[in-house]
Amino acid sequence: MSLISKPSELLNKNAQNTVLAGLIYGEPGVGKTTMALSAPNPLLIDFDNGLKRVNVQYQKDSVQIKSYKDLIDVLQSTDLENYDTIVIDTLGKLIDKMGDYLSINNPKIKQSDGTLGMKGWGSVKIEFQRLLRSLTDKNKSVIFVAHAKEDKEGETTKKRPDVPGSSGKDVIKELDFMGYMSIIGGKRTIDLMPNECFHAKNSIGIDGFLEFSKLNGVNDFLTTQIFEKYSSTKAEEMSLRLKYDILIEIIDNAIDSLNTIEDVNDYYKNKYQQLEKVYSSYEYERAKMLKRTEKLGFKFNKESKVFE
Question: By residue range, what is the domain housing residue 44?
């Protein structure tokens, strides 16, 4: 059995798999937890007692977590089977509890003042990656909730997720998207596109700026505006990639079969650059034709527009 996959095969697998890892962060009171719970069929891992701040009608099943060991116990149980998304609120508390748990087994990762040292943050990074991997292996999406903090970058003040220690950048690398949530003109918004004011990330090919409209009894924003749009985008990409692969095969077979000057000129006159253009298929055909005619010793006459 070959381990090699064609791009279209990978796209097909990804189109059927809408497992995502995302982060929502912002100032207190903007509705971060409510938005996070709009993901598909969520379970809230509540490190921050945040469920009580969610309107009762939008509350979802939750697990109240006091230690990282509690989360490990949940992951090792069958309790997750009925849920599609795991919401972790907050990311900062998760990292804190993770560090505390790791230091129990290895006290040396903490410095004399009780904070994690370089080795400790390395251990947190590895454990965070393991956590994400264990959830995605269970086919679960993950939405992290975090508070915002300000960083100085030269003369600019920039918002970023409030994540302890040096783990912030490592966390972001593992995410498919990260959005800064705020209220603009009385409307809640989330922005996935980084700029000079805040950090963000958009690796899923959807609109970067989204308005979190009034719920009116239905809390499905992330489901419809991110998960379903991502799935639709992947399906479109898969369709185009399949078309491209078919076109390339047609071009290869047609040009590889050209042997005489008559064959070449007939193809150039009647078939060249006349198939549907998908991605760089025209550029591919042009390069393929040039390589074939050079091999056959034919040159193109620009005045008569035929090969000789």
Answer: 18-218
Whole-angstrom Cα distance, residue 100 to residue 225?
36
- What is the DSSP-derived secondary structure letter of residue 47? S
In a domain, 176, yes or no: yes
Q: Among 287, 291, 211, 230, which Cα is nearest to 20's?
A: 230
Within-domain flag for 6:
no
Between the alpha carbon of residue 229 and those of residues 14, 189, 199, the distances in Å are 13, 17, 22
11 has pLDDT over 50: no
Give the integer Cα–Cα distance in Å for 20 and 230: 9
How far lies 281's CA from each of 61, 178, 187, 306, in Å?
50, 34, 44, 22
What's the number of domains the chain is made of? 1
Q: How far apart are CA 29 and CA 68, in angstroms?
A: 26
| Distance, CA of 60 to chain centre | 24
CA pair distance 162, 90, nearest whole angstrom: 9
The model carries a pTM of 0.80
